Amino acid sequence: MTNSTEGKGIDSPPVPAKVIACHIIELDKCDGMMKTWSYPSSERTQMEICFRKIAKIRDSSSASGAVAKYFKYCKTWHYINISPPLPSPDMKCAESKFSKIDRIAIIIEAEDFNPARYEDFGNLFIRVFVAEANPTVLLRQFLSLVVTGKCHWENTSLKASKYDAILPFQNFRVRSLITKFGIETIVLLTAVLRKQRVVVYNRKVDALIKDVLSILALGSRGCDTWDNVFPWVGDNDDELAQFADMKFYIVGCLNASIENRPSFYDVFVNIPAAEISVASHAKERMMMSKPHKEVALYMVQLAQTRRLMNMI
Amino acid sequence: MEEVDGILIYTLKQIGCDVGSKISELSSQQLIQCVLSCLKLIRPDDSELPTYDSKMPMSVRFKVAQQIAQLLTDLGYTEEIECQSLLYPTESDARKVLIFAVEKLPRESEVANQIETLQRIAQETKNKEENEIDTEDALALGNGIEVDGIRLPSAVDINKLPKETLKFYASHLADLTFAKQREKYRKSSNKERTIDPVPIQTPVYDDDDFGDPDEPEGIVENETNSTSAETEKSKPVIAEKPKLKPPIAQKPSLVKTQIDEQPDINDKQREADDIAEKLRLLQEISKEKALRLHQRRDGLKELTLKINTLQDDVERLKEQLLDKEKQVDRQNKTHQLVNGDENGLEKVKNAIDAQVEKLMNRSVQWEQHRQPLIDQIRSKQQESFNGESDVARTREKIKSLKSQLKQMGQEAQTKEAVYTKLLAEYEKMSKDLSRSSYTRRITEIIGNIKKQKKEINKVLQDTKQIQKDINTLSGRLDRTFAVADELIYKDAEKDKDKSVAQSYKLLVAIHSDFSKIIKTLEEAGNLRRQSRDLEDKLELEKGKSVEDKLKRLRADLGQMQNENMILEARLRDPTIKRNQTCSS
């Protein structure tokens, strides 16, 4: 299962775009942000979580360039697209409305997981909104995405069906995971196979999301586990509550302090420190035996040979 | 707590107490009645149990309550209990007391034992009857016989009695005698045995569930005193009851016959046995029936519950069905649309387009409201931000002022410290030297200075006088010289005498000589002054200790020269230098 080629380890989730909602958040020059438009609606806690995520992105990423990140909340994927800093207001008359705004963030809510698709659509939406400064034009684009699955604006046209559902899984790093953790990878494999609660910690969002999906790819193939994956979760209560009563999940967190709350996990993976710790209450379930070791050794061996092959 | 209350109320109702549905709603009278009836069951042999009635005078009521409290404590009630806790009960008190009383009630498991004892008692009383009859036989003749409290004339021949009397006896004496008999049994057993047949009845009652819960309390109380026969009587529900009567009814005739005929006693015994047996059987049957009834009731309850759940299920399923039907309808419609003619599809498309357009219109309308609102929010934010900045500025000012204040305070402090220090010094000083001594000295000095000034002035005046004198003298000298010169010159011209000419020459010579002398004298004075100035300067220079400095300079010079030599030597040979430095 682990020796499969990287990026093709998971069955594809449902293909059609199931877009639910779209929100515009304007980011001030002095670190404030405001949700200025939503279709069809938005919840307060949901928006608060979005604000926190955007603030995190703002803190961590460099000031220039567009950013696209995603997270899951309440069974829907939220794709955050943040525009690069807007040019000075006297360039275009339309932008006079953005005189106080530094950047625009557009959040697309969708049921399906397809980061590439929603990054492109999000960027298109941003371009539309920045050029027109009118949410009505954006709404037309959004409705055309919902109804026809297509968007056309100026010279670019996008088709939702064009994006292969497998595409998002091409960047798994199963092998790097194995080389990083060595024999201990077997703990991860067992945890996913036995449907334990896994919490992953990494410092950067992109790496964290990849690690979480890699761990999922390590041991699971079906869509049945797809509901239990939360690649990027803050450590505040309203986000932690969404999987509080689940028996199995893989959760990514940017805050290492969650290690001190063993009630949330059976296995804690600290990527930067390359440590896997099993919570004391789950030790019995995670007992390792000889076959485990054999599998682990085989896994490591395979990863090495593959690497050699790649080097040749 | 509700559960406990439920159990309590259930039990109290079972023992025939008139209680409501809640412990908290019990009145004091009800409570006391409940406790009393419990006590009667617990201690059926206690004939001294007080009775309580709300119509009784207050003092008696208090007394009774006190008695009950005492009884309860005697039974082992651990909590504090007084008459007031029964007369004016709190809910918790009442609950505690009732729990205690109910716990002390005889258990159902004792029922079987009690039935046994009842039988045994029946047996024993029968035996006793025999004995009694024996003794009565012995006593008989002459006095007549008293059977069961009914006095019969001694030598009554039943056959001789009128028919009506016999009939009356047969019909009415049965119950009477039977009741009396039972009472006697009870009394005798009370005296001789601790086991009492009475409590048997009530538990049987409880168990049967036949007892009428609405039965007046008086009956319940009576029951404890009544015979088992009466207990049977008060069970109107038992269908078998009528069967019981005939054997009892037969009894008086037996009794009557016993008096006259000894062999009838055996029959009577047998019949009594039969009765006891029947009684037992009946009791068992009734128990069984009660049990069955219980089971049936439980079954019924279960069934009703099931019916309810099933009904719920049915309703839910109906709802589901409705939903499904709606879905099917919708799907049918969509199917028709999709699979029907192309117009349908187009219709749908048009409808969607129309909806989209509608939405767009709405959006445009919303935008007209939204943008100003957002702008308003932004301006408000800006305002609040500005306000905040104003606040921040004033805060900054306040801060600087505060720091200034601090600084000033510090300064004041240091100044104060200096002041205190100076004050201390001043105080110290004023102790050593008095102000007056200073002033005295100052005045002395001033006096001296004044004196000196006077003297200086005097000297100055003297010198001025002398100068004036000198001037006048020199003037006079000039004038006299001029006069003498003129006279001598005239004489010399007149006489042309040589001596006069000579004297004139001498005069001139004297004059010039003297003027020379004066000049030299003046010069000498000047020189003397100059020398005095120089002397002063010399003194000053001496005070500066030039000689020491010179000496030092010389020594330094010597050292410098020495060093120069060493340096020169080092240039030539470094080893020499080292030695020299060592030596130096």
Automatic annotation (TrEMBL), chain A:
<dbReference type="GO" id="GO:0015031">
    <property type="term" value="P:protein transport"/>
</dbReference>
<keyword id="KW-0344">Guanine-nucleotide releasing factor</keyword>
<dbReference type="GO" id="GO:0031267">
    <property type="term" value="F:small GTPase binding"/>
</dbReference>
<dbReference type="GO" id="GO:0005770">
    <property type="term" value="C:late endosome"/>
</dbReference>
<dbReference type="Pfam" id="PF08616">
    <property type="entry name" value="SPA"/>
</dbReference>
<protein>
    <submittedName>
        <fullName>Protein FAM45A</fullName>
    </submittedName>
</protein>
<dbReference type="GO" id="GO:0005085">
    <property type="term" value="F:guanyl-nucleotide exchange factor activity"/>
</dbReference>
<dbReference type="GO" id="GO:2000641">
    <property type="term" value="P:regulation of early endosome to late endosome transport"/>
</dbReference>
<dbReference type="InterPro" id="IPR042431">
    <property type="entry name" value="FAM45"/>
</dbReference>
Automatic annotation (TrEMBL), chain B:
<comment type="similarity">
    <text>Belongs to the CCDC22 family.</text>
</comment>
<dbReference type="Pfam" id="PF21674">
    <property type="entry name" value="CCDC22_N"/>
</dbReference>
<protein>
    <recommendedName>
        <fullName>Coiled-coil domain-containing protein 22 homolog</fullName>
    </recommendedName>
</protein>
<feature type="compositionally biased region" description="Basic and acidic residues">
    <location>
        <begin position="230"/>
        <end position="243"/>
    </location>
</feature>
<feature type="region of interest" description="Disordered">
    <location>
        <begin position="183"/>
        <end position="252"/>
    </location>
</feature>
<feature type="compositionally biased region" description="Acidic residues">
    <location>
        <begin position="205"/>
        <end position="220"/>
    </location>
</feature>
<dbReference type="Pfam" id="PF05667">
    <property type="entry name" value="CCDC22_CC"/>
</dbReference>
<dbReference type="InterPro" id="IPR048348">
    <property type="entry name" value="CCDC22_CC"/>
</dbReference>
<dbReference type="InterPro" id="IPR008530">
    <property type="entry name" value="CCDC22"/>
</dbReference>
<feature type="domain" description="CCDC22 N-terminal">
    <location>
        <begin position="1"/>
        <end position="106"/>
    </location>
</feature>
<feature type="domain" description="CCDC22 coiled-coil">
    <location>
        <begin position="230"/>
        <end position="544"/>
    </location>
</feature>
<feature type="coiled-coil region">
    <location>
        <begin position="265"/>
        <end position="334"/>
    </location>
</feature>
<dbReference type="InterPro" id="IPR048349">
    <property type="entry name" value="CCDC22_N"/>
</dbReference>
<dbReference type="GO" id="GO:2000060">
    <property type="term" value="P:positive regulation of ubiquitin-dependent protein catabolic process"/>
</dbReference>
<dbReference type="GO" id="GO:0097602">
    <property type="term" value="F:cullin family protein binding"/>
</dbReference>
<keyword id="KW-0175">Coiled coil</keyword>
<feature type="coiled-coil region">
    <location>
        <begin position="391"/>
        <end position="418"/>
    </location>
</feature>
<feature type="coiled-coil region">
    <location>
        <begin position="517"/>
        <end position="570"/>
    </location>
</feature>
